[in-house]
């Protein structure tokens, strides 16, 4: 039986692409115990106006909104851009009550940076979710700082489990995970865009090109999900010996696709290390 116990009250400071995706995942799970979301502008806050269980605050209307959001929250998700994290932590530090758990969504920013501003007694975790949280299919990496108890960690894990799968890992591996699953949806969408472009190039209408490319990705992912088979075996079943797919796959293999992904993820990792220094 799925766990339907209510989550504690949660604050999401910065409910944009990622914080907003988690918010939607939590609400869709039906397990929310009340979520307060803040954004700078009214335009962004409006996305969650009227959503049951959500209090959506625009800081341009309510400048103390972040502190207000913290008032009743047990878990605080920090969802602003990495460069904005230190200023936000300095702002909210005085409002953090004993027992409040702070969880970063930010790429690169270390637990040590959080602790240097909030104090080492505040429980801090780093998470690295991805946007399929919206549909409950996220992968979230979770790393805990030294002030985090087993109970805190289990609670935060249960928050992210409403949005999909959770991988516990040491902080030293979270940037590497980010290059795979954090950024990964973008790689998949890029591949879909490229296949759509190839279809347009073969004379298909925009609508047909999109349908062919998008439904092929969705169908292939659903097949993988439903069968649990090795992707290499599923690929083999499409690739008839001396057939057409074999020729196409040979072109992609000759282009060094695995090496390209290794290079791309290395570049993402290097950027995460820059972000850690505030660059
Ligand atoms: N996008 C993704 O797929 C992923 C992102 N992340 C991380 O999530 C974080 C947010 O990224 P993303 O969601 O893409 O960025 P967005 O710009 O979409 O979201 C950031 C949000 O923060 C709001 N904001 C700005 N300043 C404040 C403030 N002082 N207090 C409260 N809210 C504020 C912004 O509101 P407004 O627009 O009104 O200014 C905006 O809605 C980053 O640290 C990123 O590394 C992690 C994993 C995946
Ligand atoms: O691009 C970024 O920096 C964030 C982290 C992973 C996905 N988006």
Automatic annotation (TrEMBL):
<dbReference type="GO" id="GO:0055129">
    <property type="term" value="P:L-proline biosynthetic process"/>
</dbReference>
<keyword id="KW-0641">Proline biosynthesis</keyword>
<dbReference type="InterPro" id="IPR029036">
    <property type="entry name" value="P5CR_dimer"/>
</dbReference>
<dbReference type="InterPro" id="IPR008927">
    <property type="entry name" value="6-PGluconate_DH-like_C_sf"/>
</dbReference>
<dbReference type="Pfam" id="PF14748">
    <property type="entry name" value="P5CR_dimer"/>
</dbReference>
<feature type="binding site">
    <location>
        <begin position="13"/>
        <end position="18"/>
    </location>
    <ligand>
        <name>NADP(+)</name>
    </ligand>
</feature>
<feature type="binding site">
    <location>
        <position position="66"/>
    </location>
    <ligand>
        <name>NADPH</name>
    </ligand>
</feature>
<dbReference type="InterPro" id="IPR000304">
    <property type="entry name" value="Pyrroline-COOH_reductase"/>
</dbReference>
<comment type="function">
    <text>Catalyzes the reduction of 1-pyrroline-5-carboxylate (PCA) to L-proline.</text>
</comment>
<comment type="pathway">
    <text>Amino-acid biosynthesis; L-proline biosynthesis; L-proline from L-glutamate 5-semialdehyde: step 1/1.</text>
</comment>
<feature type="domain" description="Pyrroline-5-carboxylate reductase dimerisation">
    <location>
        <begin position="171"/>
        <end position="275"/>
    </location>
</feature>
<dbReference type="GO" id="GO:0004735">
    <property type="term" value="F:pyrroline-5-carboxylate reductase activity"/>
</dbReference>
<keyword id="KW-0963">Cytoplasm</keyword>
<dbReference type="GO" id="GO:0005737">
    <property type="term" value="C:cytoplasm"/>
</dbReference>
<dbReference type="Pfam" id="PF03807">
    <property type="entry name" value="F420_oxidored"/>
</dbReference>
<keyword id="KW-0560">Oxidoreductase</keyword>
<protein>
    <recommendedName>
        <fullName>Pyrroline-5-carboxylate reductase</fullName>
        <ecNumber>1.5.1.2</ecNumber>
    </recommendedName>
</protein>
<comment type="similarity">
    <text>Belongs to the pyrroline-5-carboxylate reductase family.</text>
</comment>
<dbReference type="InterPro" id="IPR036291">
    <property type="entry name" value="NAD(P)-bd_dom_sf"/>
</dbReference>
<dbReference type="InterPro" id="IPR028939">
    <property type="entry name" value="P5C_Rdtase_cat_N"/>
</dbReference>
<keyword id="KW-0521">NADP</keyword>
<keyword id="KW-0028">Amino-acid biosynthesis</keyword>
<feature type="domain" description="Pyrroline-5-carboxylate reductase catalytic N-terminal">
    <location>
        <begin position="10"/>
        <end position="108"/>
    </location>
</feature>
């Amino acid at each position: 039986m799925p766990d339907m116990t209510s989550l504690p009250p949660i604050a999401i400071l910065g409910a944009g692409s990622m914080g907003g995706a988690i918010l939607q995942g939590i609400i869709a799970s039906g397990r929310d115990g009340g979520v307060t979301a803040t954004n700078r502008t009214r335009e962004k806050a409006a996305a969650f106006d009227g959503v049951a269980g959500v209090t959506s605050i625009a800081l341009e209307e309510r400048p103390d909104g972040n502190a207000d959001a913290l008032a009743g929250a047990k878990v605080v998700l920090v969802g602003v851009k990495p460069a904005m994290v230190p200023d936000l932590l300095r702002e909210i530090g005085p409002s953090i009550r004993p027992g409040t758990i702070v969880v970063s969504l930010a790429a690169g920013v270390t637990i040590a940076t959080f602790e240097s501003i909030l104090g080492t007694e505040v429980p801090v975790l780093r998470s690295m979710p991805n946007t399929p949280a919206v549909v409950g299919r996220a992968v979230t990496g979770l790393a805990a700082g030294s002030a985090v108890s087993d109970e805190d960690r289990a609670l935060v894990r249960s928050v992210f489990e409403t949005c999909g799968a959770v991988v516990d890992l040491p902080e030293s591996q979270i940037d590497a995970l980010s290059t795979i699953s954090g950024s990964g949806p973008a790689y998949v969408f890029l591949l879909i865009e490229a296949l759509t472009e190839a279809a347009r190039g073969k004379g298909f209408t925009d609508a047909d090109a999109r349908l062919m490319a998008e439904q092929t990705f969705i169908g292939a992912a659903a097949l993988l999900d439903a069968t649990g088979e090795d992707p290499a075996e599923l690929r083999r079943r499409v690739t008839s010996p001396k057939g057409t797919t074999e020729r196409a796959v040979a072109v992609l293999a000759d282009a060094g696709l695995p090496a390209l992904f290794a290079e791309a993820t290395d570049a993402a990792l290097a950027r995460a290390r820059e972000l850690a220094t505030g660059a």
